[in-house]
Design a protein that fits this description.
globular, single chain, about 260 residues
Length: about 260
């Protein structure tokens, strides 16, 4: 019962905090008294409900989610592989370190403009999500691989533990905190950069395209509504992914995997 009360109190605090900022938003909207400059929470909610009722709404969300997640998953796979190689072979670390430093330093807009010269706008969000996430995954996973307990690896060698069991019972438990931290940071950036790419590339049927159109027609209510959609999707995907990681971690600890 006590854990539930603690959980309920924490959720109530979050709810009260959110309610406060909605009240501030409402007050500011009433003060300005111009929907075109700052739409009120009520009118934004109405616009959101109207969007949900449109037949194209869910296909637009599907379009953006699929492409941004493809970029994220590709970065996840390639980032882990490169980090493992860099941890094992120093030459890889020397070669990739300056490359990822440059990728982190270059503005997202520069990448978007350059990549638009080579690929179709419909695939732009895949490339941008991939590029923005890859350095984060690489950096975190490299630290994780470098911090793996060498004594445990030596013990595994003495007892002739199979490579699969070494990965499962030595590498995964020690690397998982770094992997979780990488995913938590990367997922938020992934959505922001992916939608930014869509706003510039304007692929038909994307969230970024609709966000740009609402701004173009000075429909502030719809602009706010699409922004809420982006925030909610980002939150749900992040929580879902972290929940999945936690479940896998629990199974490893219990020895069911």
């Amino acid at each position: 019962m006590k854990p539930f009360i603690t959980w309920a109190k924490n959720k109530l605090k979050i709810f009260c905090g959110a309610l406060f900022w909605i009240a501030v938003w409402q007050f500011a909207s009433m003060k300005i008294d111009k929907e075109v400059l700052l739409a009120s929470p009520v009118s934004t909610l109405k616009a959101l409900i109207n969007l949900c009722g449109q037949s194209a709404f869910w296909s637009i969300i599907k379009f953006s989610i699929i492409r941004i997640l493809i970029g994220f998953i590709l970065a996840l796979i390639i980032g882990v592989i490169i980090a493992l190689l860099s941890a094992k072979i120093e030459i890889f670390r020397i070669l990739f370190s300056p490359l990822f430093s440059v990728v982190k330093a270059v503005p997202v807009a520069s990448f978007i403009i350059l990549i638009l010269l080579w690929i179709k706008s419909s695939n732009l969000s895949i490339c941008i999500s991939f590029l923005m996430v890859l350095p984060i995954i690489y950096t975190n996973m490299l630290q994780g691989f470098l911090q793996v307990d060498k004594k445990l690896l030596e013990m595994a060698k003495v007892f002739r533990m199979s490579y699969g069991n070494k990965i499962l019972y030595i590498y995964v438990p020690q690397i998982l905190p770094y992997f979780t931290a990488a995913c938590t940071t990367a997922l938020g950036l992934c959505w922001k950069s992916g939608v930014a790419a869509e706003i510039i590339g304007l692929p038909n049927g994307s969230i970024g395209n609709r966000l740009y159109e609402s701004k173009l027609y000075m429909d502030t209510r719809e602009t706010f509504a699409w922004t809420i959609v982006i925030v909610v999707i980002s939150f749900l995907v992040e929580k879902g992914f972290l929940w999945l990681i936690a479940k896998i971690n629990d199974k490893i600890k219990k020895g069911f995997l």
